[in-house]
Design goal:
By secondary structure, the chain is of the alpha+beta class. The chain is 57% helix and 14% strand. Strands 1-2-3-4 form a four-stranded mixed sheet, sandwiched between helices. It has a two-stranded antiparallel ribbon with strand order 5-6. It has a two-stranded antiparallel sheet with strand order 7-8.
Length: 374
Amino acid sequence: MRSFSIHVGRLFGVEVRLHLTFLILPLFVFWTEYNAQHPPNGPRDLALAGIVLACVAAHEIGHMLVARRAGLIPKAVILLPLGGVTVFDESRAQPPQSTAEAWKREVRIGLTGPLVNLAFAMLAAGVILGANPAARLWEWPFLQSGNLPRSLVWANLYIAGLNLLPAYPLDGGRILRAFFARSIDPSAATRRAVSISHAIAMILMVAGLFSNTWLTMVGVIIFSAAQLEERAVIFQSVLDDLRLEEVMLTDFATLSPADTLEDALQKAVHSLQDDFPVVRGSDMVGVISRQSILEALRAEGNGYVQAVMNKIFEVSVRQESLSSAFRKLTSRNLSIIPVVEDQRLVGIVTLQNLMHSMALLAESRKLRRDNTES
């Protein structure tokens, strides 16, 4: 999620990130205005990009509100110029009771975004025509920085219409994937929807070369969004299929509750770990991070690990899935999970090493699948 997006804030407790395609939108607007032989206007071009961003944000707020009512808790959203990719908190999600219920939920969530944009378009048109009955809302070009009120109406209409295309992860593509998922497993349904999305994106990009360059921009955005979702599906399949024993660290340093913080810091200096299990004899009694050691030394001076360590922690077993461990780490805001066998510490999984392993395994799985398909 962080590879091609930047953090811009939080909305209703949900992290909001801006995809890099949004950053080139003002340049694209400037370029199209220049090619159309309209005098480019920097502030107005930026305002048009801002209108598109506001329409996309309204679209995604509609999705998030309906998703919450359906038992899905969004924790992050990536905004693209056509919509967004929402990441849900799987640890707090309420699973549907049946495939039919899952299908209906996806349709409700999928249709909400376009309906929000249609409502805003009608509201904006009503206000504009009420203030200026001579406003030419149906004059071409519909989306132009020279007429921002008309662009507000048509940006909403375009986003609503484009999101109904059966191109995943647009809303129409999500509904199509839900339809596929009624008869095949979700991963296969997503891959099938992504393949259709790639085909639609390529058609739009080629068509844009011979007609309207905005079509090329739409195709690039759809292709980028589909790539994001495909990587997310591969990550989820890795989480579900692999066990902790395949990725856990077996060569790791431990601390004793009787160690002083200065001694602990010296051990941390010579280790690549950021988090350490605290062990008394053969029993694990807590966990402590490098950052906690430094903060305690700065605030109170030298002391003992026992006074600073976190005594509340989760444990896992070798056969537990990465998905289960990831839920424990993220839902409880933990940074380390000890792996035990017969009440004996045999390994550790940290958020850092888990994410690193997931990335490598997901990339390996994608390469294997691409080689098989070719």
